[in-house]
Amino acid sequence: MKQLIISLAFVLLSTNSFAFEIFALGTSNTNCRAGGHAYTNTLSELLTAQGINASVLNAGIDGDRPTFMLNRLEQGLKNYPNIKLVLFEPGPNEQNKRFNLEYTEKILAYLQEIKMPTIYSSTTFAQTAEEAEMTAKKYGAYYYGNWSRSVPRDRENYTFDGVKSPSGHMAAKGCALWAKNTLPLILQVIKEKNIQ
């Protein structure tokens, strides 16, 4: 009986374990609270459907700014030593464009220094797409584009709560669509960096 209980515990642990984690660092866009954390949850489901044994950790905090994200990133990497990829979305909450860019670059430089594969999703508040792409290239990150690209600004995809933009936060459908749009680049990074 004792052996059976130990065997069952091992099976449960192995079915709930992941080969690696993906750390999604960002703001309310990443957190997608209005959509029930649909961005990170959908990414986890899509990766599983692709046969990839990974979990996407939601490290998005509503109202956060790049100034405060570096410490959270360092703690996340310490607490989850099996993180193999970071999705970084600095968001539009930092109203001082210079601070937004300064700390965005500090985070990207840190990730480059520790050789952590990174996908950077920019915000048009701080940089044009061309500037953000150059920033990503400078720090060896993959560039996704603006976090909201290809997500229609309509009532199905946005809450229209008026926060930070006329359409506000993304709703569940918008967050899920962002996840689907991000998936091909994530799969590319996993393949190119041989992440397992």
What does this structure look like?
With 196 residues, the chain is α/β, with parallel strands linked by helices. It has a single domain, classed as 3-Layer(aba) Sandwich (Rossmann fold), CATH 3.40.50. It is 47% helix and 15% strand. It has seven helices and five strands, in the order αβααβαβαβαβα. α3 crosses α7 and α4 runs parallel beside α5. The radius of gyration is 17 Å and the shape is globular. The relative contact order is 0.17.
Low-confidence runs (pLDDT<50, min 5 residues)? 1-15
- Percent helix, as a range, is 40-55%
Please give the largest β-sheet.
5 strands, parallel
Number of strands: 5
Q: What is the topology?
A:
Layout: H1 2-16, E1 20-26, H2 28-31, H3 38-49, E2 54-60, H4 66-79, E3 83-88, H5 97-113, E4 118-122, H6 129-138, E5 142-146, H7 172-192
Descriptors:
7 helices; 196 residues; 5-stranded parallel β-sheet; alpha/beta; globular; disordered N terminus; Rossmann fold
Short description:
The chain has 196 residues and is α/β, with parallel strands linked by helices.
